[in-house]
TrEMBL record:
GO biological process, any: DNA catabolic process
Protein name per Swiss-Prot or TrEMBL: S1/P1 nuclease
CDD domains on file: S1-P1_nuclease
Organism lineage: Bacteria, Pseudomonadati, Bacteroidota, Flavobacteriia, Flavobacteriales
Gene3D superfamilies per UniProt: P1 Nuclease (1.10.575.10)
GO MF assignments: endonuclease activity; hydrolase activity, acting on ester bonds; metal ion binding; nucleic acid binding
Pfam family, one: S1-P1_nuclease
Keyword set, alphabetical order: Disulfide bond, Endonuclease, Glycoprotein, Hydrolase, Metal-binding, Nuclease
Length: 206
């Protein structure tokens, strides 16, 4: 189980090729999960199917957003983004949010999935969170500036409609394709062997 869950982390990383083409609203997250699922071996799919009680990675990819309104999960709010100080281009633990952030969240999820003493319920919860946060990490405005709230305070026009640049990336772009998440996943370019190796050798900070 431990190795299969780590394989999931790897293949979620492979799905980030999608991030350069689309964005990360509900369909974007589900497409990420769908792509990752398609890369898994039959054995890994079987184990994950059991862990997620029959749900797919695509279906659980929006879980972290769905629980936001529940006060019980308020502590996970800062996990959806990481703010970079002005002029900084690399993640720095010294300036990281003490309440946690997206990078800390990814590391926590991975640690729980690696922990053989963690319960099935814990692994299920953190796998659901991981699927979502890998998507968030590759939405450019989830790793942005705190002073404009990740682009939420930057007003723009999208086809003559007023909105903000974060919303454009999160939902507006993907809506313009008028595709389901399965159609989006089917229309992405397969990664080369070299690209897979490059992603596998990287870190969350990359």
């Amino acid at each position: 189980m431990k190795n299969l869950l780590l394989i999931t982390v790897f293949f979620l990383g492979l799905s980030i090729s999608f991030a350069s083409e689309y964005d990360w609203g509900q369909n974007g997250h589900r497409a990420t999960g769908e792509i990752a699922q398609n890369y898994l071996s039959k054995k890994a799919k079987k184990e994950i199917y059991k862990l997620l009680q029959g749900k797919s990675l695509a279906l659980v990819s929006t879980y972290a957003d769905e629980i936001k309104s529940d006060s019980k999960y308020r502590e996970y709010g800062p996990w959806h983004y990481v703010n970079m100080p002005p002029g900084e281009t690399k993640y720095n633990l010294e300036t990281a949010n003490p309440d946690g952030d997206l990078l800390a969240a990814l590391k926590k999820c991975k640690a729980v999935l690696q922990d053989e003493s963690a319960s099935r319920e814990e692994k299920e919860f953190y796998l659901k969170m991981l699927v979502h946060f890998v998507g968030d990490l590759h939405q450019p405005l989830h790793a942005g500036r705190g002073e404009d709230k990740g682009g939420n305070d930057i007003q723009v026009r999208w086809y003559n409609d007023g909105t903000n640049i974060h919303s454009v990336w999160d939902t507006k772009m993907i809506e313009s394709f008028n595709m389901s998440y399965t159609e989006l996943a089917e229309n992405t370019t397969d990664l080369t062997k070299e690209e897979k190796q490059q992603i596998a050798s990287g870190t969350f900070e990359d």
